[in-house]
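Fill in residues.
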């Protein structure tokens, strides 16, 4: 191989023609693309059966926008926090806020008050939209001056369990009714700025604690538009037959948010939402709704492939399966194909990141089976490079860090110029922290993740966050958390802990300290290992690869 300096730039571009990105806000774009639909179902809850048609989504969005502007007095640039399980109203809750010129920060409905306090505080949330069951957690996360709006409970079971909502909460239904009664002229909605921040999902990126990712309308619209070209279109347009998309991927995460829900609306599809995943509910939905498209993460693919309750017959309606967010092994893809018993059903992988709204690589629909393990080719308007360890650009089949750029690239991390500069270089390339290679036909393959991030069932876990919690214990001198591979969970967090001399602490005590503070999937299910010393490089950086490779006999 040539020395680094002798090599020029090697940029991988899409062989598809560039797409003209419309100069519209996300709600303007979605309204235009689905303007021909009215009574057709838009989102239906698989559990409660509550359904919103395209016309109902439009009307609820408009009223919610008016309510936020006139009744809650929010102004363009203000942030609305959404603490909601997947449910039909998620869509108008987002679109209405955006119509009013506001930004939304979407939070995990399973988060503890402690986790939410950090996100809502950092984002500067002015209002929290939630459901009755989560109202107390929401109140604990924000000050008494922040209004809480209660949406209808996702299903009857959670309604019955939490009968009495807090007295100071406002009600979505009443707000929308009042906005409807006041009429369209009640408050003028802003014209809308495509370059304004629309969504603020949280991601830990390559290092540190979760940060607000500033995604503009343009980022989100560009990503949908670039995935809508005929060669890539996994989701077919409503005219060709309305697609039925079963998704349990959370709408607060960028994959469910823009990669599934918004994309589904743009193409006039019918989305089936589920507030929580249970094998029974998922299987029932396969039978009842006969989905044509499944959006999955590898741990869900594993469930479909091996769970005895999922039968071959249940998968006959499925035309497309899209997988992403964590590596899908060849063994898993084979197991799934065996279960389906269909040669025409090939899993298409996509590669995405919160910071890229989310997709940069996608396997075209007409993919051949031998490319099934690929995470995709560069989508239109997007460019990629692979940077070798020696700093040279990689040729086909050489491993290196994936760099990407395109119109979907975030504006930056909120309140964190330093992290933004560490992630996007002066030339505008985003350094992903993923090690990949590409083949002679420009299909990319994942090799490794060198950034700290841990993925549990597609969910982000920040090692720094867990390390900080473990370090709160006075007995602990040092700590490092890494992800260990696991079939059913993608990865599990494992802590390596150094105790102060003559101090005692058990694995149980450490786990007990973490448990009440974090959402379930962040728990140290990969175990706690006590060491004399955390391996670090001379500048003090934890050698995570060494810890990942740790074996008990060492
Ligand atoms: C191996 O996980 C995401 C977004 C995923 C996504 C979205 C829409 C995939 C396909 C799609 O259509 O975002 P984050 O920010 O939570 O996590 C980003 C990280 C990546 O850096 C990489 O390490 O998740 C990992 N990742 C993958 N790993 C994402 N996609 C893949 C993949 N294979 N296909």
């Amino acid at each position: 191989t040539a020395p680094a300096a002798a090599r020029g730039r090697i940029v991988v571009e899409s062989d598809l023609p560039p797409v003209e990105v419309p100069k519209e806000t996300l709600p303007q774009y979605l309204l235009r693309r689905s303007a021909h639909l009215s009574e057709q179902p838009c989102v239906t809850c698989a559990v409660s059966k509550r359904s919103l048609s395209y016309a109902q989504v439009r009307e609820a969005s408009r009223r919610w926008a008016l309510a936020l502007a006139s009744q809650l007095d929010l102004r363009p640039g203000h942030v609305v926090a959404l603490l909601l399980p997947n449910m039909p109203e998620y869509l108008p809750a987002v679109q209405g806020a955006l119509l009013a010129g506001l930004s939304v920060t979407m939070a995990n409905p399973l988060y503890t008050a402690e986790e939410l306090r950090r996100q809502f505080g950092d984002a500067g949330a002015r209002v929290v939209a939630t459901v009755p069951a989560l109202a107390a957690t929401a109140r604990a996360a924000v000050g008494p001056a922040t209004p809480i709006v209660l949406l209808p409970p996702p299903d009857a079971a959670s309604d019955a369990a939490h009968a009495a909502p807090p007295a100071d909460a406002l009600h979505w239904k009443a707000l929308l009714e009042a906005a409807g009664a006041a009429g369209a002229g009640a408050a003028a909605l802003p014209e809308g700025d495509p370059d304004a921040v629309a969504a603020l999902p949280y991601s830990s990126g390559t290092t540190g604690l979760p940060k607000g990712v500033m995604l503009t309308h343009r980022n989100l619209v560009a990503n949908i538009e670039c995935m809508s070209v005929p060669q890539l279109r996994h989701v077919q347009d409503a005219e060709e037959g309305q697609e039925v998309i079963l998704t349990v991927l959370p709408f607060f995460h960028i994959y469910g948010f823009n990669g599934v829900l918004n994309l589904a609306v743009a193409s006039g599809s019918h989305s089936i939402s589920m507030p929580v995943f249970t094998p029974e509910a998922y299987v029932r939905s396969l039978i009842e709704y006969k989905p044509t498209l499944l959006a999955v993460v590898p741990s869900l693919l594993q469930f479909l492939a091996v769970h005895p309750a999922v039968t071959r017959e249940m998968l006959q309606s499925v035309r497309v399966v899209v997988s992403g967010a964590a590596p899908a092994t060849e063994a898993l893809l084979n197991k799934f194909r065996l279960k389906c018993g269909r040669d025409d059903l090939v899993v298409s992988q996509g590669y995405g990141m919160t910071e890229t709204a989310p997709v940069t690589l996608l396997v075209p629909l007409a993919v051949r089976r031998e490319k099934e393990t690929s995470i995709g080719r560069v989508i239109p308007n997007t460019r990629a490079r692979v940077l070798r360890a020696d700093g040279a650009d990689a040729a086909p089949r050489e491993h290196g860090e994936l760099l990407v750029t395109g119109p979907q690239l975030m504006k930056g991390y909120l309140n964190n110029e330093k992290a933004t500069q560490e992630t996007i270089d002066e030339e505008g390339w985003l350094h992903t922290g993923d090690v990949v290679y590409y083949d002679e036909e420009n299909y990319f393959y994942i090799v490794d993740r060198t950034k700290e991030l841990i993925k549990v069932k597609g969910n982000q876990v920040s090692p720094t966050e867990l390390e900080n919690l473990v370090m709160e214990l006075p007995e602990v001198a040092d700590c490092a958390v890494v992800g260990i591979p696991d079939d059913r969970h993608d990865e599990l967090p494992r802590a390596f802990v150094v105790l102060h001399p003559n101090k005692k602490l058990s694995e149980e005590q450490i786990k007990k300290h973490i448990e009440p503070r974090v959402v379930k999937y962040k728990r140290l299910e990969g175990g706690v290992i006590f060491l004399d010393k955390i391996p670090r490089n001379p500048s003090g950086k934890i050698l995570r690869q060494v810890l990942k490779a740790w074996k008990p006999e060492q």
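The pocket of 4UU is lined by residues 203, 254-255, 259, 322, 324-327, 349-354, 358-359, 375, 432, 434, 446, 449, 455, 460 (CB under 6 Å).
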